[in-house]
Amino acid sequence: xxxxxxxxxxxxxxxxxxxxxxxxxxxxxxxxxxxxxxxxxxxxxxxxxxxxxxxxxxxxxxxxxxxxxxxxxxxxxxxxxxxxxxxxxxxxxxxxxxxxxxxxxxxxxxxxxxxxxxxxxxxxxxxxxxxxxxxxxxxxxxxxxxxxxxxxxxxxxxxxxxxxxxxxxxxxxxxxxxxxxxxxxxxxxxxxxxxxxxxxxxxxxxxxxxxxxx
Length: 214
Hints:
about 210 residues; Rossmann fold; 2 domains
């Protein structure tokens, strides 16, 4: 089930229709309080979140979600009219998995949904058997990931910067003037070097360790 949180009734209705045509099960609410009520009773596979919500903002909702053990793993896609880099960085810092600015391409959103569903399944499997794995390339100190001796190529650094502000693979490929496959390789290498498995983890640790450049 996908939970859509947006105070624009027309937008909620249109997005619900599009996603149901892709055979997704959809629930919609207009504010964060209604969303919390649903979360106490059933857990969605993905949350689609607007940032400019009444009373409790999307940022506040996202922060609370990530701080609650039984909800922290739920993938979140931000769909917002806020398109400044600082807005993207704040959302990624709080734990969103993807960020699209309105208006957006519905095919890109659907692609992101399928990708996050695959990653979510893999994450829950890894969580269950986490004692079998050892973290490499960084150590954890009070939930702070400290990286040592990490060297990035210029293309990897530019890719990391663009991922941090919310650009998707196709956009990064155009900016760097390379193929999508090359971007996938850069991101895969970044995942390996930072010892992570998702963009959210990558952005969080990169920001913590000041690996973002201008």
